[in-house]
Each structure stands twice: as C-alpha cells, then as structure tokens.
Amino acid sequence: MTSTSATTGRPQVPPLLLAEALGFVPQLVLDDITNVGNDCIGRSLLGIEQFLESGYVAKADDDELKEERRQEVEHGLHQCQTLLEHHTDIAFDSFEAWCLRNIFAVPPGLPYVLPHQEGLDMTTTPEQEQELMAEIDALREQLANEKKISRLAQRAMRIAATERREAEKDLAASPSSISRL
After folding, report:
1. How many domains does the chain have?
2. Are the C-beta atoms of residues 11 and 2 closer than 8 Å to each other?
C-alpha cells in the first residue's frame, strides 16, 4: 500500500490515501499558500509603482523628464518583479518539497487505519477472499432469480385479476344463461 519516492528513496503513502485520511489534498493547500505569496508580491509591486508615480514621476518639471522617469520606473519595477518572482519561486519550491517530505509524509512502518476502516478484519487470505467473492456472486444470482420470479408472479396476478373481471362482467351480462343450466 506504500510506494517508494524517487527523490527520497523512502516509502511514501499514496497521495489519494493521504488526502482521504486528512480530508484535503496537501498539494492544493501548498498551491494556495504559493498563490497567496505571489499575490502579495503583485500587490506590493503595484503599491511601489503607485508611490513612485505619485512622487518621483509627478515631481518632474517637464513632460520629457516625466516620460524618462516613467520609463525608468517601469524598467526598474520590471527588474524588481523578475528578481522577486525568481527568488519567491525558489523559496516556495523548497517550502513545498520540505512540506511534502516532512509534514505530509507518513513514516514507514507506521500502522494507519482510516476511521471508516476501524474494526475491519484485514487478515483474510486470498483463498478466503476468493471463496467470499464466489459466495457473493451466488447470492447475487439468487437475488436476480428471486426478482425474476417476483416479476413473473406479479404479472400472473395481474393477468388473473383481468381474467376474473372479464369473467364477472360476462356473468353479470348473462344471468339467464346460468339459470337455464
């Protein structure tokens, strides 16, 4: 039930089992954390840009100087954004790897039982399992046969009821023919 990680060489719990046990997918939580960090960087750079536009660029005396400062601010912010995003990506990649290796990892050999599996007998041999599956198949076939018989019986009851009503109509329509007998 465990697999071996290519990067660590240690046994790992399958991601679906881990998500089932935790009630959420760890990778999605880590992605959300990364997205929040990237959003903060974007908002910070937007604030810096607004500050520089209102201060440094707006205080220029002529239009040529304003345009030169605007291009300077734009170029500087682009470099700053590239640098921040690069280092943030590296940091969040390391954070993600560390979390998956340390926080969201189940130590090898640790017995784990999910709540809906408590009390289950996991000591069944393959032969016993095969016998149980054969018994289940036989019970399914028996149930299908009983449903078929039930449908046939209901059909026969409907036919008999219809024939009885027709016979009663015939009887009510010809009372004289019965008295002659």
Report:
1. 2
2. yes
